[in-house]
Amino acid sequence: DGGITQSPKYLFRKEGQNVTLSCEQNLNHDAMYWYRQDPGQGLRLIYYSQIVNDFQKGDIAEGYSVSREKKESFPLTVTSAQKNPTAFYLCASSLYRDSSGNTIYFGEGSWLTVV
Amino acid sequence: AQKVTQAQTEISVVEKEDVTLDCVYETRDTTYYLFWYKQPPSGELVFLIRRNSFDEQNEISGRYSWNFQKSTSSFNFTITASQVVDSAVYFCALTTRLPLVFGKGTRLSVIA
Fold it and tell me: What is the pLDDT of residue B28?
């Protein structure tokens, strides 16, 4: 089946540890995105990538890093520099590099809890 | 700057009632796109509709309808004869050349 797969669904980590969230898509989409969702805050853009080996910071990129070595993969690393990493993380993709008008489709999300 | 405001944080209705979710947006661009997404308890965002700024026709899809009014910068979403399965968080979003900007969402609870 075509779609966006995020893993793991639930992740617990100790404070100070880096953690990497996986995002894979088999839709042949050019662009991929990472959003963070906190209760009552809606979704905020962390990073996005319009093409392999290139990515742009979103509104809340501090404490996060990404890579885009393959078209279908866009992993997100939550580093120890992220002050409040506990959140729901959503990966998304859209067909074309230019996001204008493109419908963005989402994965099922990953819950990260830092204790 | 782009901004989306969903003033209703939570709404509760009794099953079979109609309910309207409000969305007001801000942008200086003349070409833009508006979206609605549904987020059920499972967490995944489900795409509902996309509308471009040059198409002000209202849209109806089954029990769902959307009212786009550029004069008031609004893109409201109405569910007719609501059902328990409609319970979810609904997000309105806006894009021009950059990735989607989301409102904070409206949590809809439909009570049987």
Answer: 93
Cross-strand pairs, B101: B94
Q: Which residues of A touch B44 (CB under 8 A)?
A: 106-109
H or E, element range at B102: strand B101-102
As a whole number of angstroms, the distance between CA A94 and CA A110 comes to: 19
pLDDT tens digits for range A42-92: 899 999 999 999 999 999 999 999 999 999 999 999 998 888 999 999 999
Structure tokens at A31: 């662009």
Provide the pLDDT for residue B25: 97
- The DSSP line for B37-55 is EEE-TT---EEEEEEETT-
Pairwise CA distance, residues A112 & A9, whole Å: 8
Q: How far apart are CA A2 and CA B94, in angstroms?
A: 25
CA contacts within 13 A on the Cβ side of A77: 10
Q: Which amino acid is at B111?
A: I
Mean model confidence pLDDT for chain A: 92
Contact A83, A69 (CB under 8 A): no
Contact B64, B47 (CB under 8 A): no
Kind plus residue range of the DSSP H or E element containing B106: strand B106-111
Which of chain B's residues have a Cβ under 8 Å away from the Cβ of A100?
31, 33, 95-97
What mean pLDDT is reported for chain B? 94
